[in-house]
Amino acid sequence: MSERIIKKYPNRRLYDTQTSSYITLVDVKQYILNGEQPKVLDVRDESDITHEILLQLILEQENLPNGFFSNEMLTQMIRHHGQAMQGMMQQYLAQAFQFFDQAQERFQSDWQKAAQGIEGVKENWMTNWVKANQSLWQKAQSQWWGTPFSSTPPEADKKEK
């Protein structure tokens, strides 16, 4: 994952150092979806405030309909935050997300293979259909004109001569 340096100014504006332009949280989200890892630095003291910005992004998304976290999950997170088992919970959640990502990648890969298999079956079916109908067409032409794949009926050949 490539790291993308973003600077946050006191006026709350975010500045992407790679594109030399101001951006929004929506842009930060898009960077993440594109596989980049944002690193947000406070301009005043160069401190890393990535965690704060990511939480802000999650908060914005959670305010939309169909948020990711249920009230029960949020309550549990608050209840367990700061306890001795917090480190273990962080590892557990990180592994759960990693497992989910791997399962999703496998599903997409299997789905693509299945789609390619269907495409291959369709191509084989079309090839076999053309071959089967080709022989039928040859038989029909032999019966009608006496010669398979003749572009003109035999009577037309005789008239031209």
Tertiary shape? elongated
- Sheet having the most strands: 4 strands, mixed
Structural class by SSE content = alpha+beta
Instruction: Give the beta-strand count.
Output: 4
SS strand fraction = 5-15%
**Within the largest sheet, what's the order of strands?**
3-2-1-4
Order of helices and strands: EEEHEHHHH
Question: Which blocks of ≥5 consecutive residues have pLDDT under 50?
Answer: 149-153
Helical content band: 55-70%
**Over all CA atoms, what is the radius of gyration?**
32 Å
Give the distance, in angstroms, between the N- and C-terminal Cα atoms: 76 Å
Quote the average pLDDT: 80
- Please report the number of helical segments: 5
